[in-house]
Amino acid sequence: MTVLRAQALGKKYGSHWALKDCDLDIPAGHVVGLVGPNGAGKTTLMNLAVGQLRPTAGDITVLGNKPGSGPAQLARVGYVAQDTPTYAGLSIADHLRLGARLNPGWDDALARNRLEQLGLGLDRKAGKLSGGQRAQLALTLGIAKRPELLVLDEPVAALDPLARREFLQGLMEAAAEQELSVLLSSHLVSDLERVCDYLIVLVDSRVRVAGEVEELLATHHRLTGPRRDRLPADQQVVSASHTERQSNFIIRTEGPIHDPAWTVTKLSLEDLVLAYMDESTGTRLRPLEVQR
């Protein structure tokens, strides 16, 4: 099953394309990391996926249907926005009652058990919680909705390292227990490396690369060797840097590299992401997608 499919998807504000020519086909059952610089289109893509925006161009389907197309579709998708929204004047118990009223598949026992494990009393007001506690409350509300897809827009951006770790641990546990598909945006590649098994890199409002993390890392390499300006046609250059005598390439290739002049090293996920985000090469990259 495809959890999200986009074809030539675009969103324009005035004369500015916030997202353009976006083609994606994300299989269900993954924790998908969405990464890119500020203004790349991450939040726009997420808002299109949950039905808060309508496309200017192209098409998008989520779980086989048009986003936000009706109550049944809305019930299948959970969303935690960038500021992990909660109502400061309401107690945690009030949030649970509101969740039960708004969501037909609401699992009150799940929500209460999770909050008890976190040590969050139901009588506490949301406005008195720490940033990490508010994020955990927002995640609990999203999980207790029992969605098939949970969309999280920079949920840990304002949290300290310990709170981030606890939040991501809870997310991984929920994804495994409920067989959730998750779409998670973050600027912190270390967080994505910890929880994501599928990656999308957005740069300049376009998809630069998308695919399963394991396969992306297996097909991307760093080559270091004597100065060269060109590589064989089967080696897609992602980024390149040169000194007078030495060249350093990051490439994507399906086959082995036989040239003994090159020192070949593996990439970390951060290396891969930064190579695609490199502004000096971004304008000449073709969108790539790893096929299953």
UniProtKB/TrEMBL annotation:
<dbReference type="InterPro" id="IPR003439">
    <property type="entry name" value="ABC_transporter-like_ATP-bd"/>
</dbReference>
<feature type="domain" description="ABC transporter">
    <location>
        <begin position="4"/>
        <end position="229"/>
    </location>
</feature>
<dbReference type="GO" id="GO:0016887">
    <property type="term" value="F:ATP hydrolysis activity"/>
</dbReference>
<dbReference type="InterPro" id="IPR003593">
    <property type="entry name" value="AAA+_ATPase"/>
</dbReference>
<keyword id="KW-0067">ATP-binding</keyword>
<dbReference type="InterPro" id="IPR051782">
    <property type="entry name" value="ABC_Transporter_VariousFunc"/>
</dbReference>
<keyword id="KW-0813">Transport</keyword>
<dbReference type="GO" id="GO:0005524">
    <property type="term" value="F:ATP binding"/>
</dbReference>
<dbReference type="InterPro" id="IPR027417">
    <property type="entry name" value="P-loop_NTPase"/>
</dbReference>
<keyword id="KW-0547">Nucleotide-binding</keyword>
<protein>
    <submittedName>
        <fullName>ABC transporter ATP-binding protein</fullName>
    </submittedName>
</protein>
<dbReference type="Pfam" id="PF00005">
    <property type="entry name" value="ABC_tran"/>
</dbReference>
